Amino acid sequence: MQKHALIKIDDKEHTFPVMTGTEGEKAIDARNLRKETGYIFYDQGYGNTGSCESSITYLDGDNGVLRHRGYTIEELAEHSDFPETAYLVIYGELPNAAQRKAFGQLLRENAAIETQMQRIFEGFPKDAPPMAMLSSIVGSLAAHYPQLATNNFEKDLQQFDLAAAMAISKIRTIGAMIYRHNKGLPFVHPKDLPFCNNFLHMMFSEPYQEYAALPEVAKALNLILLMHADHEQNCSTSTMRMVGSSGANLFTSLAAAINALSGPLHGGANTAVMQMLQSIHDENDDGTRFIEAAKGGSKSSRLMGFGHAVYRNFDPRAKIIGQACDVVLKKLGKSDPLLDIAKNLEQAALKDDYFISRKLYPNVDFYSGIIMRALGIPTNMFTVMFAIGRSPGWIANWREVASNPKGRIYRPRQIYVGPVKRAYVPLANRK
Ligand code: ACO
Question: Closest by alpha carbon to 289, among 355, 369, 348, 363?
Fold first, then answer.
């Protein structure tokens, strides 16, 4: 039987249907709220607002659950790799052998950045921030491939397949080129290699010496990217959907999502974590100063890599990556003092009432930087790595929006709290 929610306001009763998701998530269908009552819901930050129906990712923040298309992140981390998970996230099913081969082929064929596009780099200063370069260059894909810069893919699904594979593959190549640009090194072109090996080749090969990734290194990179493949309606994904809802094309929407990711409270946190750990190391501190400062309540002194807008229990990705840290470092025969600092900091915070009472646990960013550092990826590239990993999730969400025949442009309301109507004051009369 259809359940309803009752709202009584101004002595009038209104009923609204209740919706239930496949995992039992409950919602009140308030699409007619304003029309029927004249009221809107005030929900600053949208923490209680379902902006869409989606079949991509299920997240239960209270119980630390994350599943893509029904598959747990733990199982994907154990058995899958980044390209396969990307396919799953975008298309809804694990690929069969032929689909996996065709997808891999499409990624390889679209890996290179054509000469015309490479010239964009010449316009950037040598030390330009990587995320600023990434968003501009990804946005320029719409200018270089106008035939794919459409949102009308339902008519021609092959075109979407091409645009999606191109975006994932080229974001990865652009990422490697950004690294080389910042270092003043010549670009290294992609080769016929698996996705992550190709990235490492484009980052670290030199004209005089090929870089051959150790299997452990390629595996660790696959894990890092896979961990980021999608994460429900976070800030950058919501941006992707919002921009896509205007009919904006895939590449333009991706540039917007990359910009949203760049903030320190979102994708920029992995960089901030490493800076924090490095400061603790340099100050020869045990982390107490950072923990005490974080408890002061100021946004600027938060313990980076701790807390999450949705997880009120552990972040399952942090568990997987935290465990992988030890394995990867051991396999590479490396040790990192920052890993010991991170572990001590985690233990100290988890015993502290401030963090316990607020349910603040390590998030995915707390340990991911340690692995990336072990792979030779510099700190200023961490958020770019996050963007490469998140590209399938953004694309899948954009596809849901673009292919929804009943979709509407995203347009939240507001509560206006500015001045009420007043008369224009001529310049001579102003104080
Ligand atoms: N350090 C110290 N205090 C914190 C932290 C932190 N890292 N995170 C939250 N708090 C405090 C808040 O100040 C608030 O305190 P109050 O109740 O006394 O006012 C309380 O904990 C509850 O905050 P939340 O509502 O859980 O935080 P919110 O949902 O607004 O923010 C966020 C979530 C942005 C992730 C926050 O925890 C944070 O800034 N963490 C550090 C940055 C970070 O690691 N970001 C990466 C997130 S994961 C990702 O984007 C991939």
Answer: 348
Q: What is the pLDDT of residue 152?
A: 75
**Domains of the chain, first to last:** 4-65 (2.20.28), 72-263+384-403 (1.10.580.10), 269-375 (1.10.230.10)
Low-confidence ranges of the chain (pLDDT < 70): 153-155
pLDDT of residue 154: 67
Residue nearest to atom 13 of ligand 1 (CA): 297
Is residue 217 within 6 Å of ligand 1 at its C-beta? no
Nearest residue (by CA) to ligand 1, atom 29, is: 309
Ligand 1 close to Cβ of residue 297 (< 6 A) = yes
**Could you tell me the pTM of the whole model?**
0.93
pLDDT of residue 153: 67
| Phi-psi domain of 56 (left: phi exceeds 0; alpha: psi -120 through 50; beta: other) | alpha
Query: How many angstroms separate the alpha carbon of residue 342 from the centre of ligand 1?
Result: 18
317 lines ligand 1 (CB under 6 A): no
Q: What is the pLDDT of residue 264?
A: 86
Query: What is the per-residue pLDDT for 61?
Result: 92
> Which residues are identified as catalytic?
308, 365
pLDDT tens digits, residue range 181-197?
999 999 999 999 999 99
